[in-house]
Design a protein that fits this description.
By secondary structure, the chain is an alpha+beta fold. It contains 17 helices and 39 strands. An 8-stranded antiparallel sheet has the order 14-13-10-11-12-15-22-20, sandwiched between helices. Strands 24-25-26-27-28-29-30-31 form an 8-stranded antiparallel barrel. Strands 3-2-1-4-5 form a 5-stranded parallel sheet. Helix 4 runs antiparallel to helix 5 and helix 12 runs antiparallel to helix 13. The chain is globular, with a radius of gyration of 28 Å. The protein starts with 13 loop residues before the first strand and ends with a strand.
Length: 680
């Protein structure tokens, strides 16, 4: 379908970014480089956010809730008028795929940096979109997308396609109204359940049926069209590593792609875009089967979160392309002028705790930095797109993504090595993140071997979440780091200056208990430390499990240290987070609960006597009464944050002495929720 010049596209000198966080900062960076004035919008929760600080102007939209601020079309349009913004970039999420928003901008004479409302609508209805794709010759998964929704007909179509099949709500998204049906006997019950979910979520009971591919990869193609009829594809990205349909690691180009397959997928994606009169940046998502067959899944009518990996391998700034196309210019390059150089990965850094079923985390970022120089990394090969800085507060009101770490290498192996080193160099304190989980993914043998499909995390759950097995070197390093941090905090500047039998000029023994922070009640390993003073220049003798090591600790820049054990020197990022010692290197992260158990047991029962809030949130319910006897693991109270519940359980047999909060109270991360007395 040919495309004519879009009358909406006119030059502008001021850009309003209708978003927040990482994407708002990223868009404004390119806009400033192009000489444009930038306008931010914000909610009350984001009044001092990084995107607000970096903009030339900023306008308040409303209260913290997105529906009262970032999703208020009239407030965003009014902010653009008030600041003289001739164009609005929506980022991703919020209003980025809202056709009514685009129509409101058209009516106000403001340029939308994205496709026309008609293109958004064409891809919004899954059944209609698949019909359009079939018309454009884009391969579809075998299935039924018709208007006849009779139960018996749907069952016959499922039988014809062959099980397993996937039932999907035609108007759906986000996994709602979607079920895998393994056999005909289960079809009717699954259909009834999907219709109930679809009605509740979308007010629509229409269903479509597709062949369910058991081991597909998620491969998407970046397309770009202008208002002059030109369209190109900027190659593909593999986004198969997902959790609950949410992408975690992305890479470009996709492993194992042939020249022929890349061209076929790219040309199909461009046909899909032109079929709906597309303008701007879009992504056509495909399922790639093991035999090389690929099938259209959906089209995202906006810039994708993972667009930086495409920028890394092509050398192009996709936001600049968006802005130039929105000004009415033709695409900067033709298809035969685009090339691939090297390989790129993106890892999404979230404020969440993978060890607690990815519970969202909130709080103040005490430190947010990355030591590229100390890690020996080339800054041209590593990029950190973030919306936060040290001192910022992670709110409970929005998506918990903090940043995207993007790396580039000459090939996949080089890029993967750089990713692991960069993850190790990333220092985030004050808020729990998924950084250690990202390292486990990136170092997993199956990921390194390109054994990928959309169930990668589920299939490898046993190894990705296997109990940590600690080495003697890790126990020794944690003992040194914990003692050294204690020494720096002491007024006397010596960890030996304690009321526990210290004798001048004589060797002194300290006993340290180290264990998994998630299992502080289990048996711990004991490290015996002997030394005369806390200077890193003097060696300490550590005895662990009958083996004795001579140890030194040297402070480097930032939180980096060098731990030397029997002459073997290792560089680590290290810190103490309360009673937990955290050590990070390119092989992964180690966390150990640290406690002295010598003459005076300074930490006796410190892990058992109180329970603290793992996040900012609201107390939903108290499940026991003060004074009531409980058994280890028994639920005590329930908290809620970011629409997710977290149950606090008894760490041991004992009783709750008192609660500090009642149901309905708001609590902060780290607040002591209750006093707990373990049984004697």
């Amino acid at each position: 379908m040919s495309q004519t010049h879009d009358s909406r596209t006119t030059p502008f000198d001021t850009l309003l970014v209708a978003n927040r966080g990482e994407i708002a900062c990223r868009v404004m960076r390119t806009a400033r480089a192009m000489g444009l004035r930038t306008v931010a919008v914000y909610s009350d929760a984001d009044a001092n956010a990084r995107h607000v600080r970096e903009a030339d102007e900023a306008v308040r939209l409303g209260p913290a809730a997105a529906r009262e601020s970032y999703l208020k079309v009239e407030a965003v349009v009014e902010a653009a008028k008030r600041t003289g913004a001739g164009a609005i970039h929506p980022g991703y999420g919020f209003l980025s795929e809202n056709g009514a928003f685009v129509e409101a901008l058209d009516a106000a004479g403001i340029t939308f940096v994205g496709p026309p409302a008609s293109a958004i609508a064409a891809m919004g209805d899954k059944s209609a979109a698949k019909a359009r794709m079939a018309n454009a010759g884009v391969p579809l998964v075998p299935g039924y997308h018709g208007d006849d929704q009779d139960d018996a007909l749907l069952r016959r179509e499922a039988d014809k396609i062959g099980y397993p099949v996937l039932l999907k709500a035609s108007a759906g998204g986000g996994g709602k109204g979607m079920r895998v049906v393994e056999s005909g006997e289960n079809f009717q019950a699954a259909l009834d359940g999907c219709r109930r979910e679809s009605q509740a979520s979308f007010g629509d009971t229409r269903m479509l049926i597709e062949k369910y591919l058991t081991q597909p990869r998620h491969v998407e193609v970046q397309v770009f069209c202008d208002s002059h009829g030109n369209g190109v594809y900027l190659f593909e990205r593999d986004c198969s590593v997902q959790r609950r349909h949410q992408k975690v690691l992305e890479e470009a180009p996709a492993p194992g792609m042939t020249v022929e397959l890349r061209r076929e997928m790219g040309e199909a994606a461009v046909r899909a875009a032109k079929e709906i009169g597309y303008v701007g940046a879009g992504t056509v998502e495909f399922l790639l089967d093991k035999d090389g067959s690929f099938y259209f899944m959906e089209m995202n009518t906006r810039l994708q979160v993972e667009h930086p990996v495409t920028e890394m391998i092509t050398g192009q700034d996709l936001v600049e392309w968006q802005l130039r196309v929105a000004m009415g210019e033709a695409l900067p390059l033709k298809q035969d002028e685009l090339t691939i150089t090297g390989h790129s990965f993106e890892a999404r850094l979230y404020a969440e705790d993978p060890e607690q079923d990815f519970l969202p985390a909130t709080g103040k970022l005490e430190r947010f930095a990355m030591d590229l120089k100390g890690a020996g990394l080339d800054p041209r090969q590593v990029r950190l797109d973030s919306g936060v800085e040290t001192g910022d507060v992670v709110s409970m009101h929005y998506d918990p993504m903090l940043a995207k770490l993007i790396v580039h290498g000459g090939d996949r192996d080089q890029a993967l090595s750089t990713l692991n080193r960069a993850l190790a160099a990333l220092d985030v304190q004050g808020v729990v993140t998924n950084r250690a989980f990202l390292q486990r993914l990136a170092t997993h043998p199956a990921f390194k071997a390109c054994d990928l499909d959309t169930r990668f995390i589920e299939k490898n759950e046993a190894t990705l979440f296997a109990p940590k097995q600690y080495s003697i070197e890790e126990y020794a390093g944690a003992a040194l780091i914990g003692l050294n941090q204690l020494a720096r905090e002491c007024e006397s500047d010596s960890p030996w200056d304690r009321h526990d039998g210290f004798r001048l000029n004589a060797p002194h023994t300290i006993r340290i208990s180290l264990c998994d922070p998630a299992h502080v009640q289990d048996e711990a390993s004991v490290v015996v430390v002997e030394g005369t003073r806390a200077s890193g220049a003097d060696p300490w003798d550590l005895t662990i499990g009958g083996e004795t090591l001579t140890a030194r600790l040297q402070h480097l820049e930032g939180d980096a240290v060098a731990v030397t054990l029997n002459g073997h020197r290792r560089r680590l990022q290290a810190r103490r987070d309360g009673n937990v010692v955290v050590m990070v290197d390119p092989r992964g992260e180690t966390r150990l609960f640290w406690r002295r158990i010598d003459a005076i047991d300074h930490g006796h029962h410190e892990a058992e006597s109180t329970l603290t809030a793992p996040m900012h949130g609201t107390v939903v319910a108290l499940l026991v009464e003060a004074g009531q006897k409980v058994e280890k693991g028994m639920p005590l109270m329930v908290m809620e944050a970011m629409k997710m519940e977290h149950t606090m359980t008894a760490p041991a047999d004992g009783h709750v002495e008192s609660f500090h909060f009642n149901a309905g109270d708001t609590v902060g991360q780290g607040d002591v929720l209750l006093e707990f007395a373990p049984a004697e």
